[in-house]
Amino acid sequence: MKLWKTILAAALLALATSSQAYAARTDLVIGITLEPPHLDPTAGAAAAIDEVLYANVFEGLTRIGPNGEVLPDLAESWAISDDGKVYTFKLHTGVKFHDGTDFDASDVKFSLDRARADNSVNAQKGLFAAIDTVDVVDPATVKVTLKNPQGSFLYNMGWGDAVIVAPESAETNKEKPIGTGPFKFQSWAKGSSITLVKSDNYWGAPVSLDKAEFRIVPDAAAAVPALLSGDIQAFPFFDPDSVAQVKDDPRFKVVIGSTEGETILAINNKKPPFDKLEVRQAIAFALDRKAIIDGASAGLGVPIGSHMSPASKAYVDLTGLYPHNVDKAKELLKQAGLENGFKATLKLPPPSYARLGGEIIASQLRDVGIDLEIIPVEWAQWLDQVFTKKDYDLTIVSHTEPNDIDIYSRKDYYFNYDNPAFDKIIAELNLTSDDAKRNTLLGEAQKILADDAVVGFLYELPKVGVWDAKLQGLWENAPIQANDLTKVKWSE
Amino acid sequence: MTAYLLKRLVIAIATLILASMVVFAVLEILPGDPARLMLGLNASADQVELLRDQMGLNAPLVLRYLHWVGGLLSLDFGRSYTYSVPVIDLVRERMAVSLPLALIALALSTVIAIPVGLYSASRRGRAGDTIAMGAAQLGVAVPNFWFALMLIYLFAVWLRLVPAGGFPGWSAGVWPALKSLLLPAVALALPQAAILARVARSALIEVLNEDYIRTARAKGLPYRAVLWRHALRNAMIPVLTILGLQFAFLIAGTIIIENVFYLPGLGRLVFQAITQRDLIVVESIVMLLVVAVIAVNLVVDVSYAFVDPRLRGRQ
């Protein structure tokens, strides 16, 4: 009896202390699925690096806002020459790095030159390819000259891979990141969590949080109890299948937003019979996007008809081009001389959208006579076999890089797609900086891809966020994969 | 005794050499390029080559094997490709979680299993035995990740006595750290205890049928004394064997439990390293585990000699 009383008392005490901690908070524990391999956004492609550091610890000349817009950051303003080749950036003054060193134009020159150097292992080196020279005009002014006009230059400078680092700390950023942002790095318990604290000498608008801990929770099943127990207060990227467990709980907000992740059924365009347009169109008619979204993404996700996010201003709705139509698909296969169907393989990487979606797509294609053998692969295998060696027929993957329609014009890309008319549009797009003209060109590009049925366009990956109902300011959408905490605060 | 130990030692070293070759070869055959994994989809082939050079991945296979083994012998385990820190540091950090977890789980399972085994064996066929062995059967059958989730919902979500997962680090204090290891240890220990209890029971039953037990009873020793002093000691050999195997399992085989409780342990490190093709980390940790398993088996072999005097006398 006495034991029970002790246990009860302990439980009550635990309850009391945990609810006490809820009043007027300035700390936050955020759950993330993958641990960053290191903490230098300029030296790796892992999205987890940006999820912790982007906008919080590191800042660039420009930055990407919550809806994908380009905003000034360390550059207060800029002027573009008439020929579109010279960008003169006016920098904020009085900015300091977290180690106390001053930020000025020489840091910008250092960062950009470092990223585009011959021995650079920046994962997005292409962002800097158009830069010819970077010149320091005075400590608060930097002039970037391009080899040719580049429409997306200001956007490119807002990527996590283009953040400004200091020569004094660039080499040690992997372990101890030093940036100019409102939060500074405090500690990293490997495999467990990364902690940021408010930076006292921040140049911009002060942030509300004093401390933010990113805790690594790899298992979706573990995320729900972590939320329910209050250990973790926000999962900005939550598993869509687990939403049902927290949806009706008033303590939490479930926020469904958009991402830049075009989820596609990629097709090897050079491999027979997929080199025939009719076959690819038959696949497009055979796909029932609604069923795929329901089964692979818990009904969340917007159907797409080409390679563009529906949240983008340049988006053209092409989902009506190939409505789900089994008869039409069979007819097209007949035209291609394949009325008896054929066999092919479908390689599936680990994410659930691919593994679940793959089963559904296989059964949809079986209805039109295409017999798919499903081969599950790990990421490392996928990159090796599918992406690098192009040894595949079909695969499912989400291309999460923003504004990446140009991948279809890349030589030797794993789609094996080659269309000079499309390449011409992309080449023109690269030289255009006027937004209206860019959107027209992007629209044409989308139409060509849809007409050619280059790949099976499925849906835009949703961003499913779940967090404490009292928490405000987290991003609803994910124009880039980041957890910008600069506007996050607890309401009373 | 000395000959017995020497023989064990020679076998252990041969196993180590063989294991190092197999581990290295198998991982090198695995498809997947760590440099490409780090650089992602947008990097060019030239850049991937550059990074491969920087990581020393372009050297000939045999050279790399010798370099690795040479490093191991001088206790230099190399640097992680992805974390770019010495592997030994990673291992040390992770061991601070995995080792205590394994020890607590092992202790728990022994403390539960031996008395249950004794109880069941001494009441063979009666109701108590049936219930205990039924429970053990259930313990073996229930998947430990499900059991772990039930523990989390009960003790962390509902009662809020312990955290739902994570590890605050020993620097946060001994009690908070231990508290976060409690549920995982229980989740790990119960299935192990179930197996151990069954082994202990059957070993004891076999011993209890021996003539000397009847003799001991016949000369008037109380049942309890016979059970603890004569029977248990002789039934220890199979129990110790299983314990040795379980320890190895607990150190390495905790991947699932470490994921459910998101503990930064060794199992998760290996898992993560495999998916990221951080080969040097996988190779070195697997070798460490091989050493640990061999060492534990050596200890078990030696402890046989202690519980069984016949082995001690043998030359």
UniProtKB/TrEMBL annotation, chain A:
Signal peptide start and end residues: 1-23
Q: Which GO terms describe its cellular component?
A: ATP-binding cassette (ABC) transporter complex; outer membrane-bounded periplasmic space
Q: What is the protein's major site of localization?
A: periplasm
Q: Which residues form the Solute-binding protein family domain?
A: 69-398
Keywords, sorted A to Z:
Signal
Q: Fetch the Pfam families from UniProt.
A: SBP_bac_5 (PF00496)
List where in the cell it is found.
Periplasm
One of the record's GO molecular function terms: peptide transmembrane transporter activity
GO BP term (any one): peptide transport
Highest taxon listed in the record's lineage = Bacteria
Query: Cross-referenced InterPro entries, in alphabetical order?
Result: Peptide/Ni-bd, SBP_5, SBP_5_dom
Q: Does the keyword Acetylation apply?
A: no
Write down the PANTHER family for this protein, in alphabetical order.
Answer: D,D-DIPEPTIDE-BINDING PERIPLASMIC PROTEIN DDPA-RELATED, PERIPLASMIC BINDING COMPONENT OF ABC TRANSPORTER
Record's family? Belongs to the bacterial solute-binding protein 5 family.
Protein name as it appears in the record: ABC transporter substrate-binding protein
Q: Which organism is it from?
A: Mesorhizobium neociceri
TrEMBL record, chain B:
Q: Where is the ABC transmembrane type-1 domain?
A: 95-300
Which keywords has UniProt assigned to this entry? Cell membrane, Membrane, Transmembrane, Transmembrane helix, Transport
Keyword DNA-binding: yes or no?
A: no
Q: Which GO terms describe its molecular function?
A: dipeptide transmembrane transporter activity
| Cellular component terms per the entry's GO annotation | plasma membrane
The residue stretches assigned to a coiled coil in this entry are: none
- Report the InterPro entries cross-referenced here: BPD_transp_1_N (IPR045621), MetI-like (IPR000515), MetI-like_sf (IPR035906)
Q: Give compartment(s).
A: Cell membrane
**Topology with respect to the bilayer:** Multi-pass membrane protein
The molecule here is called ABC transporter permease
Query: Which organism was this protein described from?
Result: Mesorhizobium neociceri
